[in-house]
Design brief:
This protein is an alpha+beta fold. 35% of the residues lie in helices and 21% in strands. The strands form 6 sheets. Strands 2, 3, 4, 5, 8, 16 and 17 form a 7-stranded mixed beta sheet that branches. Strands 10-9-21-20-19 form a 5-stranded antiparallel beta sheet, sandwiched between helices. A hairpin with a 5-residue loop joins β2 and β3. It is elongated. The protein starts with a helix and ends in an 18-residue tail after the last helix. The model has no long low-confidence stretch (mean pLDDT 91). It comes from Microbacterium soli. Keywords: Cell cycle, Cell division, Membrane.
């Protein structure tokens, strides 16, 4: 017979069993969650606590010139550090069997001789660290040691001396093409030039080594897993470093001789559009950029746009000839000062009588009035189209970092004055490389080839990625280009600069230009100019275009200031590329006057 007490005991037993089963079920569910559902996460977490990882740095790729001369590369240096506490322990050790062969006094003298310090200085570093913290395990000895110094320190076999390696960027040729190459900042980030422009090729990918640690932090054998680093690729440029070096020295001397604030020489290969030199003064040394003001850290050949002046009279001549509006022997009656029907006032650089100028003669004497009269034979819209086809108003295909496009206003907005000044290189701006590109088309029988600065990127595994082939397009007839080249040769032999620019053994064509500099208030600075000279050599078989610029020369303010530098630059280019001397004599001179 079941009593009330029995029923109560049974009920309590059932409740207790239920509670036990509930708790047990909760433990089982939690165990399943830990060991099954979240097993991967917990394993990864535990392995993470038992694992260590070290980074394997990849080397940034090299930048080399057309012949493989290294202009930028990675190098390893070593930072030496000491363990003050271990040194103290060795020095206070009483058991001679546990003491190192060299006493601290002896070792510090050897260390000092290797790192370029005195023994007292080395010992002072350790003493200062111990005074600050008797348990100090670190004291910086010296950073940036060479591999030779590292090896000498390593051979001392001192347990308390450690050397940590790190990569640094070095530029073996210093300032040679430094404005093109660019540099990295302290964090290793590319700032200017090719270093920034071709980051995708040059950048390395770091690797890593991961391993498990056992008791006491001991590495577990066989647990290592390595992801190798991938070094950056090599960027090959089109420039010739030796030629660039010579031209940099030369333009620096000439700029200083003329009292100019800056200067440049740009060399372009006619048949390929490749930039073979871009020499600048002041030039930046990427190893120490602070040696020049920050404004000269970039390449002014690409980033500075200015009014070219008379060098673009050749483009006006090409336009009117190509449009059938004139020939080299067409003529105009031109005074030195003229008021045009729309009220525009144009002056030549120097007073002269009224001349019956041929187009060739107007180029030789660089007559603004005459070029205005010839240029106005073609409507403004067509002239704008020709300027744009020659590259005005657009950056080059190089797409250099911080490259300027220059300014060319829509011809519909040209006012009465600019309607004429655009015929002789005013009211629009260009860079030195854009001038070089325009003359490349004249030299190349009217076909304009996109300029290039990079030849290829070669991956660390040797795979070569050639730069895309440059576009080539006809912008003027070949007969037009030939006529303009003949006029440029006449400028070289009949202008006031003829003797100064003569290159023995070679026929050349050239044109000078003097650009006024804006004052920031809608006018021009008085007596301040940007002078330039551009030429083609040899003129009978064009191989190279050379552009020389001087920014604000003070000893001689006309374009003649560039004559000596131009002559030396063309001469050196002919020597560097072993261009055969001209074998054909010049034809009959074109007349200045009708």
């Amino acid at each position: 017979m079941t009593t009330r007490a029995t029923r109560g005991t049974r009920r309590r037993t059932v409740v207790a069993l239920a509670v036990i089963l509930a708790v047990l079920s909760a433990f089982i569910l939690r165990l399943i969650d830990i060991q099954v559902v979240q097993a991967d996460d917990h394993v990864a977490d535990s392995l993470g606590k038992l694992s260590s990882s070290t980074t394997i740095p990849g080397a940034r790729g090299d930048i080399v010139d057309a012949e493989g001369t290294v202009l930028a590369s990675d190098a390893f240096v070593y930072d030496a550090q000491l363990d003050p506490k271990l040194i103290h322990q060795y020095e206070t050790e009483t058991d001679p069997r546990k003491k190192p062969e060299l006493s601290w006094d002896q070792a510090s003298e050897k260390i000092a001789g290797i790192v370029g310090m005195t023994g007292d200085e080395v010992r002072g570093i350790v003493a200062a660290a111990l005074e600050k913290n008797p348990n100090s395990r670190y004291a910086k000895l010296k950073n940036g040691l060479s591999t030779e110094q590292y090896l000498q320190l390593r051979d001392l076999r001192l347990a308390y001396l450690h050397n940590a390696s790190r990569a640094i960027r070095v530029y073996p040729d210093g300032a040679v093409a430094g404005n093109l190459v660019g540099f990295l900042n302290g964090a290793g980030e590319p700032q200017y030039g090719i270093e920034r422009m071709d980051q995708s090729c040059l950048a390395a990918k770091n690797g890593s080594t991961t391993y498990r640690r056992g008791q006491g932090g001991v590495r577990v054998p066989g647990s290592e897993r390595t992801v190798p680093a991938v070094d950056g690729g090599t960027v090959r440029l089109t420039i010739d470093a030796d030629l660039n070096w010579y031209l940099q020295q030369m333009i620096a001397e000439e700029a200083q001789r003329q009292g100019a604030r800056a200067g440049s020489v740009t060399v372009v290969e006619v048949k390929t559009g490749k930039i073979r030199a871009a020499a600048e003064y002041p030039s930046v040394d990427p190893n120490d950029v602070d040696t020049v003001p920050q404004e000269f850290w970039r390449s002014h050949v690409f980033s500075d746009a200015y009014e070219p002046g008379s060098t673009f009279k050749a483009i006006t001549a090409a336009t009117v000839i190509d449009q059938g509006k004139a020939t080299p022997l067409s003529h105009v009656t031109a005074p030195a000062h003229m008021v045009f029907p729309n009220g525009a006032v144009i002056n030549d650089a120097a007073p002269h009588p009224v001349y019956e100028y041929t187009l060739a003669g107007a180029m030789i004497d660089s007559s603004n009035v005459s070029l205005s009269m010839f240029g106005s034979r073609v409507d403004p819209g067509t002239r704008e189209e020709y300027l744009r086809s020659f590259g005005v108003g657009s950056p080059t295909a190089v797409d250099f970092h911080s490259e300027a496009a220059g300014i060319l206003e829509d011809s519909a907005k040209w006012d009465n004055q600019s309607l004429y000044t655009t015929t002789f290189g005013q009211h629009f701006t260009v860079t030195p490389v854009q001038i070089a590109g325009a003359y490349q088309a004249i030299a190349n029988d009217g076909r304009k080839i996109d300029l290039s600065l990079v030849e290829s990127c070669t991956d660390a595994d040797g795979t070569v990625h050639e730069a895309a082939a440059p576009e080539s397009r006809r912008i003027i007839k070949s007969e037009t280009a030939a006529d303009v080249r003949r006029m440029l040769e006449n400028v070289a032999v009949q202008s006031s600069n003829a003797r100064a620019v003569k290159v023995p053994g070679y026929r050349i064509g050239m044109k000078t230009g003097t650009g006024e500099k804006p004052d920031g208030h809608g006018g021009y600075k008085k007596g301040v100019y940007f002078t330039n000279m551009v030429g083609i050599a040899p003129i009978e078989d064009p191989q190279y275009v050379v552009v020389v610029t001087l920014d604000e020369p003070t000893k001689m303010r006309s374009s003649a200031a560039t004559a000596v530098a131009f002559q030396q630059a063309v001469t050196q280019v002919m020597k560097t590329y072993r261009v055969p001397p001209s074998s054909k004599p010049m034809g009959e001179l074109l007349p200045k006057f009708n």
